[in-house]
From TrEMBL:
Source organism (scientific name): Multifurca ochricompacta
Keywords recorded for this protein, A-Z: ATP-binding, Nucleotide-binding
Binding site for ATP: 163
Record flagged with keyword ATP-binding: yes
The protein, known as: Protein kinase domain-containing protein
Region described as Disordered: 1-22
UniProt GO molecular function: ATP binding
């Protein structure tokens, strides 16, 4: 019997000062676009200026000066986070009227002009997070996501990977979000031994909505100057991408261990996508198969996924659409890179 794949352990951050709740099970459900929330409120106030949102955007005092925010002190920002979640608005998939509002199915049916609907607002709780990893361009944390109930469905609660862009690196994360929007559903769902899932499921790409803050009645809590300065900060808060958490990074592979991963790259290329930077750090593994209950899964039947499409290409947009011959060249080159970079021999 073959041994289970070697795994790189996941490194956890130190626990937050106040544990809100235990981490819920990972969200594995495919969520249709019209079920995703239009707004997400991010709770991140336990650590004040050391919280994930503020630390990533404002790591050092010179950054304040770069934004022209020298007058905003940390106490004001901490005060804001303690009293308010930061509201984000979905940018991808691009919201349709049906995905923004939950309409009462009465006389107006699902008429987008009906005023009976209310905005869908989800929640991310970064006060209760686990560190998953970071690189030159992003920081990734595991955190609870709550999707609101609708007239047709109950609320959804599960842990997802929250990928935040590091300072001035938002273009790569936006490109990755566009790639995820273009993925067909069959690449994201496990459909049996012959057609395992290739990439994680995505739950949207979100940007801070400073306009939502401006509309709040906080005159008694902040001066007009503080309100303006906080709105400036919110314009530079990191965007984030929500994706399914699919396991831990693989170690370099040998022999037949490479075959299931290379087959994922082949299916990715057949669907006219290029990952852009194949390496062990961009492939994760978890017990499988995913078609059976979690208690019956095993690393003797691993489930692999390809991650990190910041430098990815698609035939649906950008240079991959304008120059299909270039996309074909990149697919051929990437398969060779994958064979080399995923191999144990690359590291000796």
């Amino acid at each position: 019997m073959e041994s289970a794949p070697r795994l790189t352990p996941r490194i956890k951050s130190s626990p937050p000062e106040r544990k809100i709740e235990s981490m819920p099970p990972n969200l594995e459900e495919f969520i249709p676009e019209d079920r995703l929330p239009y707004y997400i409120d991010v709770y991140d106030n336990d650590n004040g200026p050391g919280s994930k949102i503020s630390r990533l955007v404002l790591p050092e005092r010179p950054v304040y000066r770069h934004f022209g925010l020298s007058g905003l002190n940390l106490e004001t920002w901490t005060k804001f986070l303690e009293r308010n979640p930061v509201r984000f608005v979905r940018r991808f998939p691009w919201p349709s009227p049906a995905s923004i509002f939950d309409f009462d199915k009465g006389a107006n049916g699902n008429d987008p002009k009906s005023t009976s609907g209310y905005p869908k607002i989800g929640q991310i709780d970064l006060r209760n997070h686990e560190y998953l990893g970071s690189g030159n361009h992003s920081y990734v944390a595991l955190a609870p996501l709550t999707l609101p109930s609708t007239t047709d469905a109950p609320p959804v609660h599960g842990a997802v990977a929250v990928k935040l862009a590091l300072f001035d690196e938002g273009e790569l994360l936006m490109n990755e979000a566009k790639i995820y929007c273009a993925f067909p559903r069959e690449l994201q769902e496990d459909r049996g031994f012959d057609l395992p899932s290739v990439v994680p499921k995505s739950y949207g790409y979100y940007q801070a909505s400073h306009g939502a803050f401006e509309s709040q009645s906080l005159v008694g809590e902040f001066t007009n100057y503080e309100r303006k300065e906080i709105c400036k900060v919110l314009q530079h808060v990191s965007t984030f991408l929500l994706i399914e958490h699919c396991g831990v990074q693989i170690d370099p592979l040998v022999g037949k261990e490479q075959e299931p991963v290379l087959s994922l790259f082949k299916r990715l290329h057949e669907a006219n996508f290029v990952q852009g930077s194949p390496s062990p750090r961009n492939v994760v593994v978890q017990p499988g198969p995913l078609t059976v209950p979690k208690g019956e899964r095993s690393l003797h039947k691993p489930s692999y996924r390809i991650l990190d499409f910041g430098r990815g290409l698609s035939a649906d947009f950008g240079i991959g659409r304008k120059h299909p011959e270039f996309l074909a060249e990149r697919k051929e080159a990437e398969m060779k890179w994958a064979q080399e970079r995923l191999s144990l021999n690359e590291y000796f």
